[in-house]
Design goal:
Two copies of one chain form a homodimer. The first copy, chain A, has 474 residues and is α+β, with helices and mostly antiparallel strands. Chain A has helices spanning 3-6, 19-23, 29-35, 133-136, 147-169, 199-205, 228-238, 275-296, 298-304, 307-318, 326-336, 348-357, 409-418, 426-430, 446-454; strands at 25-26, 41-53, 57-63, 71-76, 89-98, 104-115, 173-174, 180-181, 192-196, 222-223, 241-248, 261-270, 322-325, 363-369, 385-393, 397-404, 439-445. In chain A, helix 5 (147-169) crosses helix 8 (275-296) and helix 5 (147-169) crosses helix 9 (298-304).
C-alpha cells in the first residue's frame, strides 16, 4: 500500500460507531428550513462548505444537496475531529436552535467525519472560490459538489417534473418513443448508427447479404432525432400524447447551443387542425412551466440568474408572445438588421435580432415556405407555404419548432414520392388511411429552455454529462 | 390518381364546416365520465367502436383514448353519414342525457366523419373481435387503436408518473444519466456501439490512428446498460438521486422477458450504508407505486388482469416481502425443487420456484457470493459475500437488483485492478477520495413491473415500440 493511498484509506480510529448517532433522526436541510423545528434533536449529513474559528466554537457551514442553502453548525472547539476541512463529508448530531439573527442553526453534540477531503491529493475545488464554468466542466464526476452546478441540477429536475405534471394535467399521455429506430424522421440532421460491439456475436446473427450494421436488426438502425412520427401513430388511438427524453445529432458542431445528446419535449395534440390553437397551446405550456419552476426554485434561481436573464423570464411569463409570418419577419430583418439579409431560412443572428426588435419578448414566426421545412408539415391552401411555427426567444434563438401535420393522404403521398422517402415511411402514410384525424404538435429543446431561464452561456452546463464532438467523458 | 386512393382521399362533400360544431365545447370522454354533466351541449371526438341499428336511432359507441370506456351516442337514423363504420374517426355534437340504465349518453344533433376506415383496404382490426397480442404486435403503428394496448399504454403512462412522483416526494432528484457513454458499467451485458452514419463526415473528424468507431468522440462509445455509476457521482453532491429512462442490451435473446431497448428505474440513496435500509426502501417504493397505479387505473387494469395477476398484485401490496440469504435460497431449491440444482447463480426457473415456494409473495435474496456479482458491490466484513439483493417476484422472476456500494477506496481499487478495469473507471474510484459517503441503490426493470402488474405474458406488449433481435419496426 503506497504512502499516498493512506490518506484516503479511511483511518480506522475515526469510524466510531457512537450509538447516539443512530438515536437521532436524520433530516435534510431543505426539510429543516421548510419546517423550522426548534429544539429538535437531529442528525445532519452533508459536505463542509466553510469552517470559521471563533473563541470557543467552530462555525461550520454544511450543504447536503437538498437545497442551495448552507446550514450552520456550532461545534465546541474541543470536539473538533481530525480532517475537518472544506469538502469533507460529515455527520453531525445536535439540537436545532435559533441564533440572534433569527437563523436556524445546529448546536452540535458531536461531529463525525464520514469521508475526509485531502486537497493536496488533487481535489479540484477550493472553498470560497468561484470557479468558472469551463473549469468546473473538466470535472464532470465531481461537479455536483459545486454550488452553481448543484443549483442547475435541482432546477433541471424541477423543470422535468413540471413538464410531466403540466402535460399530464392537460390530458396528454406520456409515451416512451424509441431511441433505436429505422426511421430518421426529418432526413435533416446527421444521425448516429447503432450496432452490437461483439463481432463474433454479430457474425452469428448476420443474415446473408447484410452488412455489419444490419446484422442485429436486419437493417440499419439509428439513434432517434425525434419521436414525432411515432407520437402521431399513438395519437390516433390515445388522443393527445407527449414524449420527453434523449435525442441525438451526430453533427460536428461545438457551438454553445448544440449537444450530441440532448433532451427534447415533443407534444402532439390530437384533433388540432390549425396554427392558432397550436400557438395558444405552446404559449400556455411555456408560461406555465416557467412560472412553476420560477416559484418552486426561487432560491436556486436567485443564485444563478443575472439581470438580463431575469428580464427575459419576466417578459416570457408576463407579456403575450409576438406573432408574425415568415414574410413579415424577413422584411423586418432586411430593413432593420445591420447583419446579413435573409437568403433562405433565418440564421441565429437574425433570430436573436428579431427577438430584440420586439423588446426581448418571445416571437412566433409562422407560415414558412414549404421548401424550408420537413415533409410532414401541412400545406396551406392555395399557397406554397406550410402551417409551421418557430418560436424564437432571447439568448438562444429557436427554442421550439412545430406545425400542423399534413393529414391529406394524397398530398402526403405525393410529397413522400417527390423526396424519395415513400418506402420507409409507408406506415406513416398509412396512418392517414384508417380513421384519420388532424394533429398538430411541437418540440422544445429542454437544455435551451434552461439556458434561457438561467441565462447560461454554454449548453454544456445545463446537462449532467454533456456529449459533443471529441468529448464523451465518463 | 388511382381508383384505390379515392377511398382515402377525403371525399370533399363530407367536409362540412357546419358552424354549429365550433360552438360546442369539446370534452374528453374521461372528463365527461368523471364530472357527469347533464344536459350539457358538447362535442366528442374519437373512433367508432360499434354501431347498432335500432328502430329510429343508431347507437354508436365511441372511444377517444382518454379512458377504457366507450361512450354511447344516440343518432337519429336520418342523420347517418356515409362511411360510418368501425374504426372511423368522428366528431359528434349533441346534449348529454342519462338513459334508463342510469348511463350517460349523447343525444346527437349531428355526426361528422373526420376520417373513414375502409376495411377492404387492409385495416387489420375488426369490431367485436378480440385479436391475440401476437397478431396486434404486427401493426405497431395502429395498435394504439386496440382496447387492450391502449389500456396498457395508459397504465404505462400512469406508472411512469407515479415513479417520478413518489421519488420526488421522498427527496430524490431526477438525474438524466447519459445514453452515450464510454463506460459499460457492469462489463456484463452485451453493448451497442454508436458512431455517426455519415462516412465523409467521419473521415474529416478522425484523428490519426483512430478507428471509425472512435472518430466522433475520440473513443468507442456505447449505449448505456445502467446509469448507476453516474448516479453515484451525482449523489456525492446532491444527496439521493434517481434516473428513469431507456437502457440497452445487444444480446441475442428473444425471450418473453428481454428487449434490446427497455426502461429502467435506478435509485441511489445517499448516506445509506446497509442492506436492511435498502430492503425497506425498495419494498416501500414498490408497494407505493403499485398501490397508486392500481387505484388510478382501476378500470384499465380490470380489462387486462386475470385472477392470477390479481393475486400477485394483492400479495405484493398487502404482504410483507420474504427475506432470505443466498445460502438459504440455494438449500431450499436444492431440497425442494424438482428441476436443476443450483450450480452458480439462480436461473429463471429457480427464481420462480422460490417465489411460489413462499406463497407467491415477493422474495428478497440477499448476501450473494462476491464472484456472482459486479465489482461495485460492498464486500461484507470477514466473508466472501457482498451486500447485494435480488428481488424475485411471481410471473417474471428477477424484478430488481440492488446493493450497498463498495465505498472503501482500497478494497475498490484492488478489485478494479484484479478485474482489469482500473483504467476507464479512475473517475469512479476517485469519488471515494474526496468527501466520500456511503450509498446504496437498486434498479428495477419497468417493463417487467408492468408484466407483473397486468399478468402480461410477453414483454414486447408492454412498450409502444419493442426492439428485439431482427426486429426494429418503425
Amino acid at each position: 500500500m503506497s504512502h499516498t493511498l493512506k490518506c484516503f484509506w479511511f483511518p480506522k480510529p475515526l469510524v466510531r460507531n457512537v450509538s447516539t448517532f443512530s438515536e437521532y433522526k436524520n433530516l435534510r436541510i431543505a426539510d429543516i428550513l421548510a419546517t423550522r423545528p426548534l429544539g429538535t434533536q437531529t442528525s445532519i449529513k452533508g459536505w463542509v462548505k466553510t469552517v470559521r474559528k471563533m473563541k470557543d466554537n467552530l462555525f461550520i457551514d454544511v450543504n447536503d444537496g437538498s437545497c442551495p442553502d448552507k446550514f450552520q453548525i456550532v461545534l465546541p472547539k474541543a470536539l473538533k475531529p481530525d480532517y475537518l476541512s472544506f469538502g469533507a463529508s460529515v455527520e453531525v448530531i445536535g439540537k436545532t436552535t435559533e441564533n440572534v439573527n433569527g437563523q436556524l442553526e445546529l448546536r452540535a453534540d458531536e461531529l463525525k467525519i464520514l469521508g475526509p477531503c485531502i486537497h493536496s491529493e488533487g481535489f479540484p475545488f477550493a472553498g470560497k472560490v468561484s470557479h468558472p464554468p469551463e473549469y468546473i466542466r473538466k470535472f464532470l464526476h465531481l461537479r455536483s459538489r459545486t454550488s452553481a452546478f448543484s443549483s442547475i441540477l435541482r432546477i433541471r429536475s424541477a423543470a422535468s417534473r413540471s413538464i410531466h405534471k403540466y402535460l399530464s394535467n392537460e390530458g396528454y399521455l406520456n409515451i416512451h418513443t424509441p431511441i433505436l429506430t429505422a426511421n430518421d424522421c426529418e432526413g435533416a440532421g446527421e444521425v448516429f448508427l447503432a450496432r452490437p460491439e461483439n463481432d463474433t456475436h454479430l457474425k452469428d446473427m448476420m443474415k446473408h447479404g447484410l452488412s455489419c450494421e444490419e446484422a442485429y436488426f436486419d437493417k440499419k438502425v439509428f439513434l432517434t432525432v425525434s419521436g414525432q412520427l411515432h407520437l402521431e401513430a399513438m395519437a390516433r388511438g390515445l388522443g393527445s400524447v407527449y414524449t420527453f427524453g434523449p435525442t441525438f445529432r451526430a453533427e460536428n458542431s461545438r457551438s454553445r447551443l448544440h449537444l450530441s445528446e440532448f433532451y427534447m419535449l415533443e407534444a402532439e395534440a390530437a384533433f388540432m387542425d390549425n396554427l392558432d390553437d397550436l400557438l395558444k397551446m405552446m404559449e400556455k405550456f411555456i408560461k406555465n412551466i416557467t412560472t412553476e419552476v420560477a416559484n418552486e426554485c426561487e432560491r436556486d434561481i436567485r443564485m444563478l440568474q443575472d439581470e438580463e436573464a431575469k428580464l427575459h423570464v419576466n417578459n416570457l411569463i408576463k407579456k403575450p408572445f409576438q406573432v408574425l409570418n415568415f414574410n413579415e419577419a424577413c422584411s423586418i430583418i432586411n430593413q432593420h438588421f445591420e447583419g446579413p439579409k435573409v437568403t433562405e431560412g433565418l440564421n441565429k443572428e437574425q433570430e436573436l435580432f428579431l427577438v430584440n426588435y420586439f423588446g426581448k419578448v418571445p416571437v412566433f414566426v409562422v407560415e414558412w415556405p414549404q421548401a424550408l421545412k420537413p415533409f410532414y408539415m401541412k400545406l396551406m391552401p392555395d399557397t406554397l407555404k406550410v402551417a409551421a411555427v418557430d418560436l424564437l426567444v432571447p439568448h438562444v434563438g429557436e427554442l421550439c419548432g412545430g406545425s400542423v401535420r399534413e393529414n391529406d393522404y394524397i398530398l402526403l403521398e405525393q410529397k413522400l414520392k417527390r423526396i424519395g422517402q415513400s418506402e420507409g415511411l409507408d406506415w406513416y402514410l398509412e396512418l392517414r388511411k384508417f380513421g384519420n384525424i388532424p394533429t398538430s404538435g411541437f418540440g422544445m429543446g429542454f437544455e435551451r429552455f434552461l439556458q434561457l431561464l438561467l441565462g447560461i452561456a454554454n449548453i454544456k452546463d445545463t446537462i449532467p454529462f454533456p456529449r459533443w464532438p471529441h468529448n464523451c467523458i465518463l
